[in-house]
Amino acid sequence: MLVHSRGGRWASWLAFAVLFVPLFAVPLLVIVAASFSTHWSGAFPSGPTAEHYTAAVRGESLQALTTSLVTAAAASLLALTLGTWAALTAASLRGRGRRILDALFVLPLAVPSVVVGLAVLVAFSRPPLLLNGTRWIVILAHTVLVTAFAHQSVSAAVRRLDPVYEQAAAGLGARPSYVLLRVRLPLLLPSLGAAAGLCFALSMGELSATMMLYPPDWMPLPVLVFTATDRGSLFTGSALAVVLMATTLLVLLAVSRIRTRASYR
Amino acid sequence: MASAGATAPPVAAAARRPRSRTVPTWVWALPPVAVLGFVFLYPLGLVVQESLAPGAYADVLASASFRDALVTTVWLAAGATVGCLVLGFALALVVAFVPFPGARAVSRFIDVFLSFPSFLITLALLFVYGTVGMANGLWTGATGAAEGPFHFLTTPWGVLLAEITYFTPFVMRPLLAAFSQLDTAQLEAASSLGARPARIVRRVILPEALPALAAGGSLVLVMCLNEFGIVLFTGAKGVTTLPMLVYSKAILESDYAAACVVAVVNVAISVGLYAVYRVVSRRAGA
C-alpha cells in the first residue's frame, strides 16, 4: 500500500477513474452505443435500432466476416507451424546460428505492416509466383505479419520448458522425433494455444497490409469497416466493428477454454 | 504428462540410430528459413531494388510531401510515446500500489484492449469529438452556439490522442509485471521511515520500473512510427505519416518507385529503433 491516508487513496482512485474511464472505457462503449442508433448529435445517441445488425449479418458484410475468419484461421495455422518449427530448431542450435534464426524471425515485427503489404504486392505481381488479385496474397501477407508473434511467444515457452522431461525420455531411449511428438509438443500445447489466439486476433484486425492487397472478391471485415466509415455511414461501420470485436473475443475465449483443458491433462 | 510414457510402445527395444546417420541440427533450420526468405526477405529485397530506380531517391527526398511526412511521423511518435509513458506509469501505479476492488478486472480489460485493432479508437473518437459528436453536441446544447469548439480530430492532435489511447496499455502491461516483482516490504520500510508517497515513487518505485519503462517506451515508439489504421481512419488530408505516404504513393498514385523509396526509409528508421528496443529489453530482462 503506497498511500496510507484515506483521503489520499480516494484522491488517487478519483484521478485514476478520471483518466481511465474517458480514455479506455468510453471509446468501446461509444462504438457499441452508436451501433444501435441512427443519430448522434447530443450527449447521447438517439433513434434506437437494430437495423445495422440485421444488415451486418447479411450479404456483403457476412461475406466479409467469413473472409476474415478464413483468412485469420489459415494465417494463424501457417504462422504457428512456421514459427514453432523455427523456435524449436533455434532452441537446439547454439551460438551464432540461434541468434541469426531468432533475429530473422523477429524482423517482420520491426518492418511496418504497410511495407510488408507493399513488398508482398511487388513480389507476387510478377513471376515466378503470380498471386496478385487472388485471396492467397492476403493470406500470405497475414501469415508473414503474424509469424513473428507466433515465433516470439513459442520460443519464450520453449525457453521456460524444463529440459528434465526430454532428457528423461531420451535417456530411456526415445528417438528425437518421438521426444518431439510425445513430450515437447504436448508440454508446449498451452503456449501454442495462446500463440494461436494472439495470431488470430491480430489477423482479424489487420488493416494496413490488407489495404494494399485485397482483391475485390476477398474483402476482410476491417476493410469493410473502413469503406463504410469513409463514405459516412458511421453507424453501420460501428455495428460492423462490434461484430468484429465480438467474433475476436469469442474465438479468444474458445482458445483459452481449450488451453485450460490442455494444461490439466 | 506422466501418462505419455504408459501408452507408448516399448521404445527401449528400438535401437538408437548410429550418430553418423543423424542430420545436423542446422539442416532442420533450412525449411522455415527458406519459407521466410521467399515470402518476406525476397519481397523486401525487391522493394529495395525498385527504390533504386534512376532518380527515385533524389525526387522523393527533395519533395516537400516526404519531408512533411517524415517530420509529422517523428514528432507524432515521440509525443505519443512520452504521453503513453507518463499516463501508463500513473495508471499502473494506482492499479499496483493503491489497489481497489476491480483492479484485477482493469488488468484483464487491458489485455482485451490489446487484442482490438487500433482503428476502433479513431472510430470512437469520431463519435465523441467529431463535428456532430457528443462533446460538440453538449456544447451547442448548453450554449446555443451554431457549432462546438472541438475540431482537432482531423489535425495531428486527433491522431496523437488516438495513439496515446491505443498504445498506453502496451506500456502498462510490462510495468504491471515489473511492479508485481517489487517487494512491497521496501515500500513499507520507506514509508515507516517517514518518506511521503511522492518520494517513495521517485526513489524506490521509479528505479525499479526504469527497465520496463524503457522497453515499453521503445516498443511503443516503433509501433507509433508504423501506425497506419489510426491515421487512415482520421481521414485528415493534413496528417500524412510515412506509412500513409507509402499507401498513397503505391495505391492511389501507382508510383511504385516513390513508394519503395519511402518504404526503405521507413524500414530503416523502424528496424534501427527496434534493434535498440531489443537491446534495451534484453538488458531489462523482459
From TrEMBL, chain A:
<dbReference type="GO" id="GO:0005886">
    <property type="term" value="C:plasma membrane"/>
</dbReference>
<feature type="transmembrane region" description="Helical">
    <location>
        <begin position="187"/>
        <end position="214"/>
    </location>
</feature>
<dbReference type="InterPro" id="IPR035906">
    <property type="entry name" value="MetI-like_sf"/>
</dbReference>
<feature type="transmembrane region" description="Helical">
    <location>
        <begin position="12"/>
        <end position="36"/>
    </location>
</feature>
<dbReference type="GO" id="GO:0055085">
    <property type="term" value="P:transmembrane transport"/>
</dbReference>
<keyword id="KW-0813">Transport</keyword>
<keyword id="KW-0472">Membrane</keyword>
<dbReference type="Pfam" id="PF00528">
    <property type="entry name" value="BPD_transp_1"/>
</dbReference>
<dbReference type="InterPro" id="IPR000515">
    <property type="entry name" value="MetI-like"/>
</dbReference>
<keyword id="KW-0812">Transmembrane</keyword>
<feature type="domain" description="ABC transmembrane type-1">
    <location>
        <begin position="65"/>
        <end position="255"/>
    </location>
</feature>
<keyword id="KW-1133">Transmembrane helix</keyword>
<protein>
    <submittedName>
        <fullName>Phosphonate ABC transporter permease</fullName>
    </submittedName>
</protein>
<feature type="transmembrane region" description="Helical">
    <location>
        <begin position="69"/>
        <end position="88"/>
    </location>
</feature>
<feature type="transmembrane region" description="Helical">
    <location>
        <begin position="136"/>
        <end position="158"/>
    </location>
</feature>
<comment type="similarity">
    <text>Belongs to the binding-protein-dependent transport system permease family.</text>
</comment>
<keyword id="KW-1003">Cell membrane</keyword>
<feature type="transmembrane region" description="Helical">
    <location>
        <begin position="234"/>
        <end position="255"/>
    </location>
</feature>
<keyword id="KW-0997">Cell inner membrane</keyword>
<feature type="transmembrane region" description="Helical">
    <location>
        <begin position="100"/>
        <end position="124"/>
    </location>
</feature>
Automatic annotation (TrEMBL), chain B:
<feature type="transmembrane region" description="Helical">
    <location>
        <begin position="209"/>
        <end position="236"/>
    </location>
</feature>
<keyword id="KW-0813">Transport</keyword>
<feature type="transmembrane region" description="Helical">
    <location>
        <begin position="26"/>
        <end position="44"/>
    </location>
</feature>
<dbReference type="InterPro" id="IPR017636">
    <property type="entry name" value="AminoethylPonate_ABC_perm-PhnU"/>
</dbReference>
<feature type="domain" description="ABC transmembrane type-1">
    <location>
        <begin position="70"/>
        <end position="277"/>
    </location>
</feature>
<dbReference type="GO" id="GO:0055085">
    <property type="term" value="P:transmembrane transport"/>
</dbReference>
<feature type="transmembrane region" description="Helical">
    <location>
        <begin position="152"/>
        <end position="172"/>
    </location>
</feature>
<feature type="transmembrane region" description="Helical">
    <location>
        <begin position="74"/>
        <end position="100"/>
    </location>
</feature>
<keyword id="KW-0812">Transmembrane</keyword>
<keyword id="KW-0472">Membrane</keyword>
<dbReference type="Pfam" id="PF00528">
    <property type="entry name" value="BPD_transp_1"/>
</dbReference>
<dbReference type="GO" id="GO:0033223">
    <property type="term" value="P:2-aminoethylphosphonate transport"/>
</dbReference>
<comment type="similarity">
    <text>Belongs to the binding-protein-dependent transport system permease family.</text>
</comment>
<dbReference type="InterPro" id="IPR035906">
    <property type="entry name" value="MetI-like_sf"/>
</dbReference>
<dbReference type="GO" id="GO:0005886">
    <property type="term" value="C:plasma membrane"/>
</dbReference>
<protein>
    <submittedName>
        <fullName>2-aminoethylphosphonate ABC transporter permease</fullName>
    </submittedName>
</protein>
<keyword id="KW-0997">Cell inner membrane</keyword>
<dbReference type="InterPro" id="IPR000515">
    <property type="entry name" value="MetI-like"/>
</dbReference>
<feature type="transmembrane region" description="Helical">
    <location>
        <begin position="256"/>
        <end position="277"/>
    </location>
</feature>
<feature type="transmembrane region" description="Helical">
    <location>
        <begin position="112"/>
        <end position="132"/>
    </location>
</feature>
<keyword id="KW-1003">Cell membrane</keyword>
<keyword id="KW-1133">Transmembrane helix</keyword>
